[in-house]
Amino acid sequence: MRICCLGSGSSGNSVVVEAPGTKVLVDAGFSARDLEHRLGMVGVDPRQLDAIIITHDHTDHTRGVGVFARRHGTLIHLTKLTYEACRTLFRGEERTQTYAVAQPFIVGGLRVEPFLTAHDAADPVAVALVDVATGARLGIATDLGRPTAGVRYALSNCDFLVLEANHDETMLRTSVYPRSVQNRIASSHGHLSNHAAAHFAVELAHPRLAGVLLAHLSIRCNDPALAREVVGNALARAGWRGWLDVAKQDAPGPWLDVEALRKRCGPGQLSLL
After folding, report:
1. What is the DSSP string of 79-97?
2. What is the mean pLDDT of residues 112-117?
3. Which helix (H) or strand (E) holds 113?
4. Which residue among 9, 86, 171, 209 sits deepest, i.e. has the most Cβ atoms within 10 Å of its Cβ?
5. Max CA-CA distance within the chain?
6. What is the DSSP annotation of 155-186?
């Protein structure tokens, strides 16, 4: 299983996940043209995509889905309420298929397991994707609000995590955002702070967790080096020594091979947790 983050943050979110013979896009928060450009940068022809999986209706996750799907004939998976909430993006020409929370579905060689999150969207979910052939498990959760018991369960035993670390608490409270916006971001239906992400990452750490990619960082209220330091230090204190990095907003990251990352961690990782 491989993953490539095309970009993540307040201006757009999209991740490519690949298993042998299968490629899916999780969210399409950039314009269709930008998605095509970013896919090209990482060597993916849009026609190679088997599906787009939409997690919720917010624009930074759906901006290009309608145009992109019409242009390339890509099948869109989303919940019924999410479809209704972003109906203006569609013309009725797209191929869509609705899914339900806690009801896994198959896309090629991937099993998609959607689970409910606490976020202020019409029907917010995050997803775990499992390589059917190998059992490798990838969790993508970028709009959490708070880590509920259901979220904890769904993200447990992942081999790789894309995890939200949206803001630094002090930077948020001293930002130019109105108090109402600050309160919304910091609420239990908003976004995880760096320290909340660190605490949650430690909860989720286990011997097979090969890597963590921090995502959905606020441009105004966070700093990549700070997020990496806060989460990295917490994981190091817990004895975890896997791969950790921060997703960029303005450019795709590298392809990450989950099994290769696990081998890089080495046997020492297994003895520490």
Report:
1. -HHHHHHTGGG--S-S-EE
2. 97
3. strand 110-116
4. 209
5. 54
6. HTT-SEEEEE--B-HHHHHTSSS-HHHHHHHH
